[in-house]
Amino acid sequence: MTRATIYARYSSEHQSEASIEDQVRNCRRLCEEKGWQVVEVYADRALSGASTLRPGYQKLMADARREKFEVVVAEGLDRLSREQVTTATLFQQLSFIGIMIYTRADGEVSELHVGLKGTMNALFLKDLALKTHRGIEGRVRQGKSGGGRAYGYRAVPQRAADGTVLRGDRQIVEAEAVIVRRIFAEFAAGKSPRAIARDLNSENIKGPSGKPWRDTTIRGHATRRTGILRNDLYAGRLLWNKQSYRRNPDTGKRIARPRGQAEHIAVEVPGLRIVEQPVWDAAQARLDAIRASPGSTKQRQREFWKQRRPMHLLTGLLHCGECGGMMAAIGKDYLACTAARSGAGCSNRSSIRRGRVEEVVLEGLKKQLMAPELVEEFIRAFHEEVNRQSSAQEMYAVEHQAELARVTKKLKGLYDAIADGLRTPGLKDQLLELEARQTHLKELIAQGPPPAPRLHPKLAEVYRAMVVDLHAALSDPDARAEAADILRGLIERITVRDDPHGHVIELTGDIVKLLTLPGGSIPVPYDSSVKVVAGARFDRDLKCKC
User: Fold this and answer.
1) Cβ(279)–Cβ(185) below 8 Å
2) Distance between CA atoms of 32 and 546, rounded to whole angstroms?
């Protein structure tokens, strides 16, 4: 019986989760009609089809490479992907493995469907974006919200005469408006955004979305017109279309890009003014003076953001264990919580030497990878995979022999029938199909199974040498950059927590999966001050004290 798998997806958090169940139910009905056995169901909830970084999609592709099924069933090709390039790549990959794509909308998917549907889906996304943009522009020109939330305001839905909900109206939240006026007045008087944030946090005044205040929340970005001090709405002017968004084809994430001032749409909304014009003008004048200062001008001319690469092995990966915020350099060799240093509500004022963190992480990984249990598991897994591939080849050879016998028997029956004078429509086509299949099976059998790989007599020593080479590359200034990029791609985050005896460093990411043995156990080759435990979530965490 043909083994089938079902894939279902819906893209928006506003869509009903029942959409998944509906898709699966309809696809199961289709499989029953075809006589296919459903061996697995993959689903992605509230994830865009413009990206392949979806857990269900990735698991489907991983299982496809293991040949766990022979056909993928979905409601439509757009459930698998809306991107034309991704759809074509998916079709090529599955076709190479020998897996068919079958949808309720189009039946068996061919090259024609991929080209036509892929183009239609791409055009659909572009057309949808244009219509959405046009609709929002119409609302903005009426003085209504173009989307998003602004501190100091709340959305106020209205109802039309026919009961339809009209969205886009806002009203001032006076309690928050008082804070906005205070920020503008203090900044215009010469107080820095960092000092303002620190004072607001010390008074337990919550910032936008209930988060602590930070200096960047207050000063924002000059070109993008973000931040409290640059929000034109506080001056009674609605400024829209400041940015466009492009999707990164590698990550699927939307990246903001500033638009030119000629594309901005400004609408006067005096009823939403919070800050008086003289105070607004004074704040803008100070912002302009800071931006025009020699130091700021020199930094922009260098365009450092285009040239910057992580200077250190763990740059951008370290997080404070108390607030979860980023840790950054203070001075030359030390790291500390940025939220604590900027007065954003974190009380963790301790610091740790950067070199010590790198040393602990690298030495810890080296010792962990050298653990006897892990070396043994590597060798066992290697032999198991070799045996699995050999068994699979033998199984396919047996199946090919059995099928060849069946095809040969059918052909003999047809030859005998023709010799007896049988002539029916379609007999010739059936005969040609069986003869072609017979030839193909004979070719497969003649090829034979590939030779078994030759196992190195000192496999354990080879593995250990590879680990040592990795460690050496990370320590070598010439090879460090490339090796560090690989290692950084396997680490999601490193959390540094205070401990009575120093610090606890917690490593989370794909690399920790390399340290996990079957059944969830993890080798512990460290001394008493270092331990490895399972994390509270599905990932694994490497913890050590230093």
Assistant:
1) yes
2) 59
d(CA 6, CA 35): 14
Cβ contact 50:252 at 8 Å: yes
Say if residues 35 and 71 touch (Cβ distance below 8 Å). no
> Burial, 151: exposed, middle or buried (Cβ in 10 Å; 0-12, 13-18, 19+)?
buried
**Could you report the per-residue pLDDT of 462-490, keeping only the tens digit for each?**
656 665 666 566 666 655 555 566 566 55
What pLDDT is attached to residue 13?
47
DSSP-based three-state secondary structure for 501: coil
- Who's near 377: CB < 8 A, 6+ residues apart? 517, 518
DSSP for residue 268: E
Kindly report the length of the chain.
546
Instruction: Give the residue from 153, 129, 119, 167 showing the smallest Cα distance to 48.
Output: 129
**In terms of DSSP H, where are the helices of 337-450?**
338-341, 354-369, 372-419, 427-447
Nearest to 72 by CA among 101, 31, 52: 101
User: For residue range 64-90, what is the model confidence (pLDDT) as tens digits?
Assistant: 888 899 999 998 888 887 676 777 888
| Domains of the chain as residue ranges with CATH | 3-128 (3.40.50.1390), 170-305 (3.90.1750.20), 309-406+448-546 (no CATH)
Q: Helix/strand/coil (H, E, C) string of 173-195?
A: CHHHHHHHHHHHHHHHCCCCHHH
- Identify the three-state secondary structure at position 256: strand
As a whole number of angstroms, the distance between CA 508 and CA 105 comes to 42
Burial class (CB in 10 A: 0-12, 13-18, 19+), 305: exposed
CB 337 within 8 A of CB 496: no
Region of 400 please: left (phi>0), alpha (psi -120 to 50) or beta: alpha
- Write the CB contacts of 249 (distance below 8 Å, at least 6 apart in sequence): 83, 85
Residue 325 structure tokens: 């915020």
- Kindly report the pTM of this predicted structure: 0.49
Amino acid at the residue 532 = V
Q: How would you label 171-202 residue by residue, b for 16+ Cβ within 10 Å and e otherwise?
A: ebbeebbebbbebbebbbeeeebbbbbbebbe
Residues of the chain with pLDDT under 50: 13-15, 49, 454, 513-546
What is the C-alpha separation between 336 and 240, in angstroms, rounded? 37
Place of tokens 């099924």: 69
